[in-house]
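Now for one protein, fold included:
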Amino acid sequence: MKILLVAFFVLSGIVTIPGADDPVIPYRTGSKLFFVNRVENFVEGTKEVGEKYSAADWIESHKYLGKLIKEYSDYYPSLSQERKSRVNKALGKYIGMTMKAGIHVSIDVLKEIYHRAPAVLEGIYEGTGLKDFLNPQ
């Protein structure tokens, strides 16, 4: 009966599970045996939802990446070259995703600047001192 009540409240939205709507894929440390799979799963999971990440989400994801890197440095001497290559490829893919996300943010900023170009140019004109230099009183 308790399980039914909990399920009702959760499904109806009256009670929410903390972190259930959090889009950031967590990285969980664990056994060396499954390390490479955990890294690949973390990167693939991030790839699936990373398009929706905000800047704050990427910062949180980087915290998980820090755990992954620490674990990688602990296991590095005992990993085979093939496993190191798989981890390095996954890390490269993650870095590529962060670069892509940064480019999208930059493009959005540039679009905003383009729409507000006259005000931005006027600000640059005043900020550099060109206004005073070219129009002395």
Notes: The chain has one domain: 2-134. Residues 2-134 form one domain. Residues 33 and 135 are 71 Å apart (CA to CA). The longest helix spans residues 81-115.
